[in-house]
Amino acid sequence: MFWTIIFLIVGIALFLFGGAFVKQDSKKPATLLTKIINLIAIILISGCVCRIVTKTYLTYTNPSVLQEMVTAMQEQQNAEKNKAVRAYVRSNIGEMIADAPIWGNEDAKKTIFLWSDYSCPYCRRVHNELARVMENRNDVRVVLKNFSIHGELSDAPAKAVIAAKLQGNDKATALDKKLMEKEYYTQDDMKDRSKLGEKIRKNVMALAAEVGLDTAQLERDMNGPVVARELKNVRDLAQKFEISGTPYLIIGEKAFPGAIPYDQIIEALDK
């Protein structure tokens, strides 16, 4: 605003006194140079006044316009992002699903991709909403993309659920449910960070045994090529879709960051 005022003053000064710097001919008082100076002055004054009026209107008179502009820009960005997501999912859905655990009917017509972290409280919230969806719909499958973003808090459970698929999607789904419903580490576990990863792994194995998994085989598979390939696929897709946090859903061909509610999930499925 400071420079706007300066340029406005310069413009007014040029308009009022600019002609004084030009040699005047009594027969031809309005020289070409004077006209040019006046034109420059008018442009400066007009531009500065417009800038001041616009800023005052948007800042003090009607600031809601700014919010509307931001919303419109976000909607445009989301539309462009969804277009890119749609194109990729259509061409690569087989690769996206190949090693991922699937919750529900594996051959369902409608697909929800869920980027989730077991140490994320918002993921537990959306998990509950998806559970309601799955209770009422048999035409939907949820593809679990276990996004390990909290290090040792989420590494073992993410690997375990992916590895559990090798013993059956039903076992992977059961372990996923256990991990989302129960606390698999305690505050006491957090006291010694040097042993936290091992404690979490043991707790995850205990839950795996509860749902009937062969834990010895599970541990071998957690360090195997399928789990490594799926974790890489999850990270690569997260980078491609600009996923920086969890939960993140792709429903059909549209992206939804955050823990969206049941009604919004149903609406997206039925579009």
Strand order of the largest sheet: 1-3-2-4-5
Could you tell me the radius of gyration in angstroms? Answer: 31 Å
Please report the number of helical segments: 11
What distance separates the N and C termini? 48 Å
CATH homologous superfamily identity of the largest domain = Glutaredoxin
Write up this protein:
This protein has 271 residues and is α+β, with helices and mostly antiparallel strands. It folds into two domains: 2-62; 93-269, Glutaredoxin. The chain is built from eleven helices and five strands, in the order H-H-H-E-E-H-E-H-H-H-H-H-H-E-E-H. A hairpin with a 2-residue loop joins strand 4 (248-251) and strand 5 (254-257). The longest helix is centred in the first third of the chain and has 34 residues, at 64-97.
Topology:
Elements: H1 2-17, H2 32-61, H3 64-97, E1 102-104, E2 110-116, H4 121-136, E3 140-146, H5 155-164, H6 169-181, H7 187-191, H8 196-210, H9 215-222, H10 225-240, E4 248-251, E5 254-257, H11 262-269
Parallel strand pairs: 2-3
Antiparallel strand pairs: 1-3, 2-4, 4-5
Helix pairs in contact: 1-2, 5-6, 5-8, 5-9
